[in-house]
Each structure stands twice: as C-alpha cells, then as structure tokens.
Amino acid sequence: MSKPTFSSFFESLSATDSLAIYVDGACSGNPGPGGWGVVFSAESQEITHAGSDSATTNNRMELQAAIEALKLLPESRLATLYTDSQYVKNGITSWIEGWKKRGWLNSEKKPVKNQDLWQELDTLKQMRKIEWQWVKGHDGHPLNEKADTLARRAIIAERMR
User: Tell me, what's the pLDDT at 44?
Assistant: First the structure.
C-alpha cells in the first residue's frame, strides 16, 4: 500500500473533523545540525513530515517545524497546533505584534532573533485558522513524542549526508 499524500489526507477529512498538528524541533549542539518534525492527526489518521538543516539552532528548528506545518495546511482548514516551545507559542501569540510595531526590535530595542522565520510564520498564520497550544515536552504525550522522534531522526539523516 502506498503512503498517503498530504492532499489525499486533507481531502479525506470532513469539514467538522478535528485536526491537531504537533510540531517539534531539535538540534545537536546549539548551533549544530538540526531537525524538525510535524505530525498531522485527525479521526484516527496520521501523516508526518520532517526535515533538517546542517547548521542551525534549536529555536530555528522549532520555528521551521511550525512553518512547514502551515505550508502544508490548506488555508481554509481549522487546526490546533501544539508546540512544546514557549518561544514559538508566546512569540506568535503575544510578542510578534509588539515586534512589528517596533520595527522588528524586541522590548530591549535589539533586533529580534530569527526575524526571517518569524516573518514567514506570521505571513502563513495570517492566511490560516490556527489555535496555538503549548504542550509540555518530554512528558509522554504520544504525538508530541512522535514529532520529537521525527526531528531527532532528521538530525541523524543530516549527519549521514
């Protein structure tokens, strides 16, 4: 049996099906090789996505995971995105509007780190209906653990290149 595509996964869902997205990023060394993982889950169905970067930071991989999830999510689809990164959750729901008002400066009037990724995430967020939730990492939540495993496997694959 062939692996389902993202389009077939989303097409198989009804408009009322609850969609959860779990994202995680990881880095071996900070900076160092990094990976990110995404798990889409709805109505007993799952589909995953992962990737890596040869030289990055943990925060960049956390952001990249959310970006990659939103790139795949159809614009009209309502979803809840779960992250174990307070940096991502607070950044996108609380801090970003202040950063934009201050010309991408943080509260200490210093340039916002990872501005390129924050801007990309903000653009994608504007076109989607997302509820952002924080979940405690490494606390035994199966889908958060799966996203973490995907991210860590992506690091291993990156090292083998």
Answer: 86
